[in-house]
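Minutes, project check-in
Item: structure for the 319-residue chain
Input as provided by the requester:
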Amino acid sequence: MKPMQESKIPVIVIFAPTASGKTALTKELFCAQGSHFLFKAEIISADSQAVYKGMDIGTAKPDAALCKQIPHHLIDILTPDQQYNVSDFVDATDRLCKEIYERGNIPVVSGGTGFYIRNFLYGVAKTPISDEALRNKLKQRIANEGNEALYKELQQIDPQSARKIHPNDAYRICRALEVYYLTGKTRTEYAIEPALRPQYDFTFIVLEPPRDILYKRIEERVNQMFEQGLEQEVKSLLESGYTKDSPALKAIGYHEWFEYSTKEEIKNAIIHHTRKYAKKQYTYIRDIPGSIIVPFGGTLEDLNTIAKIIKKSIEYRTH
């Protein structure tokens, strides 16, 4: 392994939509028993919901056995009432990449939150410092008028940002409106991305499962979540004092329990919303230079293809 001061930090970044098989892939590639590589990997989760404690089933977190075999980071670090944003993710991932590489291992950023991954690759856009009075005013409007009203307002002001923000994401809706009302410029106008960040040597792999296979996996995963006890998980969160307004419970798989009456309606809504989200996830990672697009059906051939890409890209850089 080259000393840090002599080289960029090599980072493997794997993006794939929800339910596409990322966790199984990382297990097959990097598990200590039978690893495909000469190096040891540590996984940094790029999943905006896996950070929350008590939300294991609905976020399909890797199990404890896998986390014991391969170190995982940014999982179970917050309670569901805490906000977590892209700046938090990028700051933490920068720190972890440095620490992992100093241990002689390779950081692997893996997940489906494309917005987080894009900002890690390019760096977070420099926008104005938050104005507490304006932020509180927007929060109060959210409370009085609801997310939908402010989301529609954002669609008129900054349609590009609106397309990248989920209508239930009150934090990011407020932030985008705050930037505009503070400066007269939209968040999109600030989001200039001239180049990938120079301190890293990225290997960026984008997995693209066939849509019919992906949709089938989504349905199977949601059914499995219900079998594993998603309903009880939601009840436990509510019994712990969290509510539909808690940041974490606005996520797909959780907010539906407050909007529909029967389990069948809830299940169908989760499947529908997850499919829509899977399509939207690719919005953030289009046109990134150096992206390696890999058709991915979860076969042994697919696994070997990805292993060859990583070997070629990483191992010659570190020896």
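Outcome recorded: Strands lie at 9-15, 41-45, 72-73, 106-111, 200-208, 292-295.
No further action items on this chain.
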